[in-house]
Design a protein that fits this description.
- This protein is of the alpha+beta class.
- The strands form 2 sheets. Strands 5, 6, 7, 8 and 9 form a 5-stranded antiparallel beta sheet that branches. A 4-stranded antiparallel beta sheet has the order 2-3-1-4, covered by helices on one side.
- A hairpin with a 6-residue loop joins strand 2 and strand 3.
- The longest helix has 16 residues.
- It is elongated.
- The N and C termini lie far apart (46 Å).
């Protein structure tokens, strides 16, 4: 049965790694729903957060294939329940709609969004939340015609007390020391 999974991949910052990782999904005909890459809490280590809809068996195979990439330190997969995650969305709406009535103001307040910038031509609104929340705000704002819209990829942390990569690196370092 297909469900949403979050795959986290840890690596050093190497040119071409993103292409090699995405090829793993392409070969297995799995669409990437969201992809975010940033530095992690561990110096020199980057974290890829990839969201897909797939079966558990296929996710296990994909993570195994990703870990075979030379520059990948470790990869993990999680369900949404095992993670804390958010996305950010920006909406550009015509400023004149703010003055016509207080609908936009009420929508912004009720959704927990905030106004980032107001010019004569447009107003930029920011909303942080899960995809369904940012989409719901888009649907409300689009009643007055959203001029531009963008939603980030998912950013996510595990509910584990420490980064699982830290445990892996400690085990690897202990093994390497015992070989010396």
């Amino acid at each position: 049965m297909k469900q949403e999974y979050i795959i986290t991949v840890y690596s050093e910052n190497h040119i071409g790694l993103l292409t090699r990782i995405t090829i793993v999904f392409t070969r297995r005909k799995v669409n990437i729903e969201s992809l975010t890459v940033s530095e992690s809490a561990i110096q020199g280590v980057y974290k890829f957060t990839i969201v897909i809809k797939s079966t558990r068996e296929l996710v296990i195979k994909i993570v195994g294939q990703i870990e075979k990439q030379i520059d990948v330190l470790k990869a993990f997969y999680h369900t949404n329940e095992e993670m804390i995650y958010q996305e950010i969305a920006l909406y550009k709406v015509p400023t004149e709609a703010l003055f016509e009535n207080d609908t936009i103001e009420q929508v912004v307040r009720n959704s927990g969004a905030r106004i980032l910038e107001i010019t004569r031509e447009y107003t930029v609104i920011e909303k942080t939340g899960h995809k369904k929340e940012t989409q719901a705000l888009f649907n409300e704002l689009n009643k007055i015609k959203v001029m531009q819209f963008i939603r980030s990829g998912r950013v996510a942390l595990t509910r584990d007390p420490i980064e699982r990569l830290s445990e892996f690196l400690k085990e690897r370092d202990s093994l390497l020391e015992s070989l010396d």
